[in-house]
Amino acid sequence: MHRKHHAYTDIEGDPHSPVLLGWKKVQAKNVALYRATVLDPTTIDRYAKDLPDDRWDKLFFGHNKTGLLSGIAILMIALGPWTGLLAAFIHANVYLASNAAVNALGHHFGRRPYDNRATNLQWLAFFTMGEGLHNNHHAAPSSPRLSHRWFQVDPGWWVIKTLTTLRLATVRFSDIRLTATAKASFN
Ligand SMILES: [Zn+2]
Ligand SMILES: [Zn+2]
Question: How far apart, in whole angstroms, are the C-alpha atoms of residue 75 and residue 69?
Fold first, then answer.
């Protein structure tokens, strides 16, 4: 889904473009848009050939709602049934709404230091582990670091740095690799 979005950013074929659909529709219907695209087998064939289901996906997570339900169960066991349910409800809504916001608001409102349709929204980046710096992401899509300037705050990058320091993760490209268009257009 996300690779298709990069292949057709804000042109015909983009599964969740505010330019084509309007930002309100993308914000409200993001989940439905994802479902429609990933249920189409040509999407998987074309964009996710190198990402086959692993053992855990085949056994467990690939089956309908098992991932979601086991998360809720863990919260209910850890926090007690009602607090756990409430935490799951809040988490699901914040997660779904902020994911939708990156796709909707992050292609409509905000700054565009690089010449692409996506936008940087620092306030959204606080909620989304840096994903709100979405103009930067489209300018350097292979970079795990989403902050490109000293004043931009990217909490996801702090987590990645901590994990790499602890040798729990490796980063393929730690430098910011701008696309050719981004290099030419930075202002
Ligand atoms: Zn985007
Ligand atoms: Zn991306």
Answer: 10
CA of 86 to the centre of ligand 2 (A): 31
The rounded Å distance from CA 159 to ligand 2 centre is: 18
Kindly give the distance from the C-alpha atom of residue 7 to the centroid of ligand 1, in angstroms, as a whole number.
10
Ligand nearest to the Cα of 102, by number: 1
Distance (Å, rounded) from C-alpha 25 to C-alpha 143? 29
The alpha helices in 51-178, defined as continuous H runs, are 55-56, 66-79, 81-104, 122-127, 134-139, 155-165
pLDDT in tens, 31-79: 999 988 888 888 889 998 898 889 988 888 777 788 889 899 999 999 9
Q: What is the pTM of this model?
A: 0.87
- pLDDT digits over 110-140, tens only? 999 999 999 999 999 998 999 999 999 999 9
